[in-house]
What does this fold into?
Amino acid sequence: MRDVMIMLGMLLIGTGAALRLWAGLYLGGHKERQLVTCGPYSCVRNPLYLGNIVAAAGIGLISGSPYVLTLTLTATTLVYLATIRQEEHKLQPLFGSDYNRYLQAAPPLLPHPAAVRRLIKDTTPCTITHFSLARELRRCLCLVALGFVAFLLAMAAPLLHAHLPTLL
It folds into this structure.
């Protein structure tokens, strides 16, 4: 069962990193200059944060502890919900009625079936710059590295438990 949890955790980390990469490429550094509502942003308003939450769930699963999983998911989600509230107050004056319509059209984190259908039909091209690709790949690498560290700790835990009394 432990191996299944580790594999599922790694899958969630990879999925979260991929979602984060996809969303970051669509955003392309336009966060406060242009309202991006296409690609993953047509499905949810905060796909970057959703990707991070999914990856955090993977890290929590790899830990093998339900307490670590619960704490990781709760803390990450609460931080992002507070961040979303702050950003909404900042973006509303910048984009006005367009932003208000977007608030109604796309949920903050969890997509509705209608939003997924919109995403599937979306044909808006995405311009990817070398800068945005490099930036997002670095950020995804950090998520994957955190997952790798969690994996190493999970693999080392039985050894530490077995040998810690003799080391002390």
